[in-house]
């Protein structure tokens, strides 16, 4: 009977969702979703404060964003996200109304309208070779004159009209591999000087007619010591550069066609100098800064070329570009790092000891060192100069300082997320004050009365607004405690800067943030990077008194043999519990499905030499691990060699470090792909936290198919090496895509399929017993998506009802991959309109709810598609019973229903990944999308069949019940009376 | 009918019986008047009542048969309704099916009550009862058949398998492209 009710229930559910859309009404936007806009770490900034209009700063960032920010609040006026391969090399403002950007290695020049950010023109600059790029906008006294912009890129110098973007002239330099370092403008004689290096030892000066690009003069000189790196232009005819050994300063004078070098040893200037020095980028007149191992030295250059140290600062220091305040006067900002605050000094260019401004600013939280500073001035009411500084911190945040305070801050580190995990919130504790409850009760009733009014269409316009406001600002959703449905969680994200953020799923606010000290640069660890974060401890038994924690894995250098770093962070408090550097490298992190007594998850870290290291390092963990030792395997995918190798574990390490927590590995199997015809481009496996409800798939006529559900499956896609480039680089004849499904325990290939004339990039998702992947079909000139479903043929005979009733079957007994289960696959392909950035699938707590695929489209939106569209049993004319089962008629292309965009009208710029997490409520799943922007929402793929909708009016229900009870009593009394009367008659 | 009974039976609180039906002369204080023969009157009375009782028994037997056959009509009616409802699961077909199941069950529970008015020492109620039960069982079977044809009975392998969790795996294997 239970079964009958269940199947009836599921049937009703299926019937109720015949139209699989996730659309929402206009007034539901923002109820359970939030969207945050970021820009990334700022590379360049130019201020635009001259006009009386809105004060703004235009910035370009490492996420290839160009944005105009409000100087008062830090909000984004407009923003453009260029493609991932379109890195911005420089920005400038031309004619006070255009923002000029140079990108893609100096080959694309664009002008944007400053007030609204519309593109005015775009020029593609052709060149013959790759070179550095340089953008120079000559200053002009006349505002509306058509200035030409000088751009060096791809080995040639271009002069581009700033009005139309036409190339006025182009000049190729005679010397190969000439790299422009500086461009010097001479107003009086309409010429420009271009200085640069050829190779590493020749210095060249070109004098060019600014009008027509005619080469007037060319001087060249060689220096046998070689040059390296940054150039500091200290006057119009002098620059300072380091030699190749980075221990000697070279002052190069190039007045009147004579080039002279002057050598100065840094050790003469700075006593305790050793190692290498770096010139801090600046363009100050007669002053430059050198950073050595101990301190930053500021060195002035006299007109004769004499170097003199004016100051030495031992703290981390950053200097800004010069800011011309009045005729012939320059100021610059100097930011030093104190203990818990930063010191901002604004100095005049020619006089080191004159401090125009000296401020000490306290920071509210740990943000690391200052990486960049940009200054801007304004005229105070008493006609003196005031300064504001835009600083970029180590954690990629952006702060505006003015009058000794932080005016606004932007957490732009969130634009570069590299890892996401979720954490539960604390359990709600008893002891809520009575007054609060009463007030809440009153509010609750009031709110519901308003809602009743709303449903009965009696509410006035402002009441409707109040209802909407109440829904949006519901205090329920942003509480800091666990809720019954599991909608409230913490999203723990790791950013590229090594900062951890905890975001509340209710409203997206930052609950805590932590710049991980272990992922910061130190003597031993020069260039640390975070790899990913994992759930370390999730307390269930001691949920009341123990906090969950996450494990952050990093490494010292971006190479495979760099030493690893581990850090453990409490997710409630945001405090680092422990961190240590490892004595081995990390190439794989394997979270094991076992925990120790304190519910810490066991992790295996594989190093570059193939040894496995167990964490946590405790005897108990080893004991737990030893029990399952023989059943743990791991595999490595070597994309360069085209090999997939499976490994087992050995009881002890070979090599020098022999401790109890180190285990050797042995190779069990390997799959070698022929390198001349196949190259691995994608591998996908099932998510380890995915829950599958049932192993059977009930098909039409009550028949059963048994899914082949295994976590040890790997989907591999290979393309022919010729076709591994961009789409269009190979002909259909020479490109093919081969997909494999591999059992990673035994190395057995369960399925292999060839798509002729197709090529990558392949995006795939693996869930339960199916894989959906996306690729390009060169013959059809269209994108395609294919689904593979894997079924277990060896279980197919389990169809005897009596045996099943009595439990005489082996369907739930543990299975081994070595039993070589017989599988069959079904597969079908469909055309798909969009190209895709990411694919994932919804996850729910018990895996009962039907699945939706979440597709991150090229338009930076997320499209939800019902899995029923990807069903290999679809046919053109489904039978009646198949229709009842929910099989859709086959179409050659997948329909894109505009209402099923999860992101509705919003864009998640620069979309990189979609993360889904189950809520406690079976019907709901949480979706977090990240890129430059962040977007979070909650989905119900089969609608909320297990709960009432949010706008359900409990008050109306209550009133109805009360009215019914009253009616029952009244009629009862009346009928009693009538009975009595009848009896007396 | 129930109401009438209640008024006649339990409605009375007390009663005095003025007639004395005692037939034993010795127990009587007052002798019978002369010429009155109690025996002959008794005989007469009994003949008439016997006749009456026979008629009643006949009538009761007839009625009992009628009652016993009543579910047959119901059965036909139900069959027709089920045919009309079709084999898809919706409110109407489920309502009909459940009423088709409920009615025979209710009737079977109250077999004794249904035949109570026709209870008589002379009437053999066993056969009508059996017929009644058989017909109702037939109705029940029809309901169950309908339930099955709607797919609501766990008679298929799928009903038993769909709640089985996936089998556990002995081995555990993870890995991937090395982190860089």
TrEMBL record, chain A:
Signal peptide positions (record): 1-23
Similarity section: Belongs to the EMC1 family.
Superkingdom, taxonomy of origin: Eukaryota
InterPro entries: Beta-prop_EMC1_1st (IPR058545), EMC1 (IPR026895), EMC1_C (IPR011678), PQQ_b-propeller_rpt (IPR018391), Quinoprotein_ADH-like_sf (IPR011047), WD40/YVTN_repeat-like_dom_sf (IPR015943)
Main subcellular location of this protein, as a coarse class: endoplasmic reticulum
Species in which this protein is naturally found: Dovyalis caffra
Keywords from the named record: Endoplasmic reticulum, Glycoprotein, Membrane, Signal, Transmembrane, Transmembrane helix
Membrane topology: Single-pass type I membrane protein
Pfam assignment, any one: EMC1_C
SMART domains (alphabetical): PQQ
Presence of keyword tRNA processing: no
Subcellular location: Endoplasmic reticulum membrane
Name this protein carries in UniProt: ER membrane protein complex subunit 1
Subunit comment: Component of the ER membrane protein complex (EMC).
Domain called EMC1 first beta-propeller: residue spans: 24-412
Record domain ER membrane protein complex subunit 1 C-terminal: where: 767-984
GO biological process, one term: protein folding in endoplasmic reticulum
GO CC, one annotated term: EMC complex
TM region positions: 952-975
TrEMBL record, chain B:
Superkingdom of the organism of origin: Eukaryota
Pfam families, A to Z: EMC4 (PF06417)
Cellular component GO terms, alphabetical: endoplasmic reticulum membrane
Family: Belongs to the EMC4 family.
UniProt keyword annotations, A-Z: Endoplasmic reticulum, Membrane, Transmembrane, Transmembrane helix
Keyword Transcription in annotation: no
Protein known as: ER membrane protein complex subunit 4
Transmembrane portions of the chain: 80-105, 125-145
Subcellular locations according to the entry: Endoplasmic reticulum membrane
InterPro entries given in the database record: TMEM85/Emc4 (IPR009445)
Region (Disordered): 18-53
Membrane topology: Multi-pass membrane protein
């Amino acid at each position: 009977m239970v079964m009958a009710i269940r199947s009836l229930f599921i049937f009703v559910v299926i019937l109720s969702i015949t139209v699989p859309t996730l659309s929402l009404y206009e007034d539901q936007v923002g109820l359970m979703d939030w969207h945050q806009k970021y820009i990334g770490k700022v590379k360049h900034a130019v201020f635009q404060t001259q006009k009386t209009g809105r004060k703004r700063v235009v910035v370009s960032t490492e996420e290839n964003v160009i944005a105009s920010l409000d100087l008062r609040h830090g909000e984004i006026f407009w923003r453009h996200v260029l493609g991932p391969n379109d890195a911005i090399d420089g920005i400038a403002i031309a004619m006070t109304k255009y923002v000029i950007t140079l990108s893609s290695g100096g080959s694309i020049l664009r002008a944007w309208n400053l007030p609204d950010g519309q593109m005015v023109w775009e020029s593609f600059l052709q060149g013959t070779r790759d070179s550095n790029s340089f953008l120079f906008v000559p200053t002009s006294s006349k505002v509306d004159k058509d200035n030409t912009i000088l751009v060096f890129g791809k080995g040639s110098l271009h002069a581009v009209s700033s009005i139309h973007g036409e190339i006025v002239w182009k000049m190729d330099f005679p010397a190969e591999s000439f790299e422009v370092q500086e461009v010097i403008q001479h107003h009086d004689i309409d010429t420009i000087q271009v200085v640069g290096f050829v190779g590493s030892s020749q210095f060249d000066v070109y004098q060019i007619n600014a009008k027509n690009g005619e080469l007037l003069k060319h001087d060249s000189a060689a220096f046998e010591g070689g040059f390296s790196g940054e150039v500091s232009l200290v006057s119009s005819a002098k620059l300072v550069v380091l030699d190749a050994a980075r221990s000697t300063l070279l002052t190069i004078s190039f007045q009147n066609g004579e080039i002279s070098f002057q050598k100065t040893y840094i050790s003469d200037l700075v006593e305790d100098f050793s190692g290498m020095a770096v010139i801090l980028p600046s363009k100050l007149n007669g002053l430059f800064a050198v950073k050595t191992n101990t301190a930053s030295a500021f060195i002035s250059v006299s007109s004769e070329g004499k170097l003199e140290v004016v100051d030495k600062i031992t703290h981390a220091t950053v200097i800004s570009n010069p800011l011309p305040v009045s005729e012939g006067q320059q100021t610059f900002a100097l930011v030093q790092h104190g203990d818990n605050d930063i010191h901002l000094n604004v100095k005049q260019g020619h006089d080191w000891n004159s401090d125009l401004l000296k401020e000490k600013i306290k920071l509210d939280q740990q943000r690391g060192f200052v990486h960049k500073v940009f200054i801007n001035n304004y005229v105070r009411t008493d006609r003196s100069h005031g300064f504001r500084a835009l600083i970029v911190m180590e954690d990629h945040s952006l702060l505006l300082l003015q009058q000794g305070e932080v005016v606004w801050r932007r957490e732009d580190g969130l634009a570069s997320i590299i890892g996401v995990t979720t954490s539960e919130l604390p359990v709600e504790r008893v002891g809520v004050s009575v007054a609060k409850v009463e007030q809440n009760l009153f509010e609750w009733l009031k709110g519901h009365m308003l809602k009743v009014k709303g449903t009965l269409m009696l509410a006035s316009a402002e009441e409707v607004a109040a209802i909407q406001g109440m829904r949006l600002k519901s205090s329920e959703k942003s509480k800091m405690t666990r809720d019954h449905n599991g909608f409230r969680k913490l999203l723990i994200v790791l950013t590229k800067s090594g900062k951890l953020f905890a975001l509340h799923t209710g409203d997206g606010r930052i609950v805590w943030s932590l710049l991980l000290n272990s992922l910061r640069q130190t003597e031993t660890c020069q260039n640390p990077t975070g790899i990913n974060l994992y759930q370390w401890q999730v307390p269930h038994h001691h949920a009341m008194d123990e906090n969950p924690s996450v494990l952050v894995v990093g490494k010292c250098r971006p190479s495979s043999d760099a030493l690893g770093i581990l850090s453990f962070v409490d997710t409630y408090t945001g405090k680092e519990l422990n961190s240590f550097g490892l004595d081995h490298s990390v190439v794989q992190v394997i979270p094991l499905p076992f925990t120790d007594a304190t519910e810490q998850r066991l992790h295996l870290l594989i190093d570059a030499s193939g040894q496995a290291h167990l964490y946590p390092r405790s005897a108990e963990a080893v004991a737990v691990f030893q029990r399952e030792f023989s059943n743990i395997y791991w595999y490595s995918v070597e994309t360069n060699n085209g090999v997939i190798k499976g490994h087992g574990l050995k009881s002890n390490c070979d090599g020098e470090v022999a401790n109890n927590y180190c285990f050797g590995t042995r190779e069990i199997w390997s799959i070698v792909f022929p390198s001349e015809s196949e190259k691995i481009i994608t591998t996908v496996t099932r998510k380890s936290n995915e829950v599958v409800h049932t192993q059977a798939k009930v098909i039409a006529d009550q028949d059963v198919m048994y899914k082949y559900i295994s976590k040890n499956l790997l989907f591999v896609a290979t393309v022919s090496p010729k076709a591994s480039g961009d789409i269009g680089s190979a002909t259909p004849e020479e490109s093919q895509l081969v997909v494999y499904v591999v059992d990673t325990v035994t190395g057995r290939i369960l399925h292999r399929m060839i798509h002729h004339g197709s090529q990558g990039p392949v995006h795939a998702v693996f869930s339960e017993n199916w894989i959906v992947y996306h690729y390009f079909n060169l013959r059809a000139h269209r994108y395609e998506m294919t689904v593979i479903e894997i079924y277990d043929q060896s279980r197919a005979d389990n169809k005897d009802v009596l045996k099943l009733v009595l439990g005489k079957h082996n369907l739930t007994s543990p299975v081994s991959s070595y039993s070589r289960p017989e599988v069959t696959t079904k597969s079908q392909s469909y055309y798909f309109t969009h190209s895709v950035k990411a694919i994932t699938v919804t996850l729910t707590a018990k895996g009962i709810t039907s699945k939706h695929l979440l597709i991150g489209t090229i338009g930076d939106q997320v499209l939800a598609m019902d899995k029923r569209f990807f069903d290999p049993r679809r046919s053109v004319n489904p039978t009646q019973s198949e229709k009842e089962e929910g099989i859709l008629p086959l179409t050659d292309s997948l329909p894109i229903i505009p209402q099923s965009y999860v992101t509705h009208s919003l864009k998640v710029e620069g979309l990189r990944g979609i993360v889904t997490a189950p809520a406690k409520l079976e019907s709901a799943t949480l979706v977090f999308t990240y890129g430059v922007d962040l977007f979070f929402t909650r989905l119900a793929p089969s609608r909320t069949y297990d709960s009432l909708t949010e706008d359900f009016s409990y008050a109306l229900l209550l009133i109805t019940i009360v009215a019914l009870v009253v009616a029952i009593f009244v009629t009862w009394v009346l009928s009693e009376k009538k009975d009595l009367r009848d009896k007396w008659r | 009918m129930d109401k009438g009974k209640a008024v006649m039976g339990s409605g009375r609180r007390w009663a005095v019986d003025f007639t004395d039906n005692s037939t034993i002369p010795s127990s009587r204080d007052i002798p019978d008047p002369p010429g009155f023969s109690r025996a002959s009157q008794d005989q007469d009375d009994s003949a008439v009542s016997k006749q009456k009782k026979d008629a009643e028994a006949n009538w009761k037997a007839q009625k009992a048969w009628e009652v016993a056959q009543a579910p047959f009509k119901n059965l036909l009616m139900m069959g027709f309704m089920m045919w009309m409802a079709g084999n898809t699961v919706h409110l109407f077909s489920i309502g009909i099916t459940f009423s088709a199941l409920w009615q025979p069950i209710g009737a079977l529970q109250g077999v004794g009550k249904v035949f109570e008015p026709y209870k008589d020492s002379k009437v053999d109620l066993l056969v009508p009862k059996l017929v009644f039960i058989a017909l109702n069982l037939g109705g029940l079977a029809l309901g169950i058949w309908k339930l099955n044809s709607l797919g609501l009975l766990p008679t298929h392998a799928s009903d038993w398998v769909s709640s089985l969790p996936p089998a556990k795996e002995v081995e555990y294997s993870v890995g991937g492209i090395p982190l860089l």
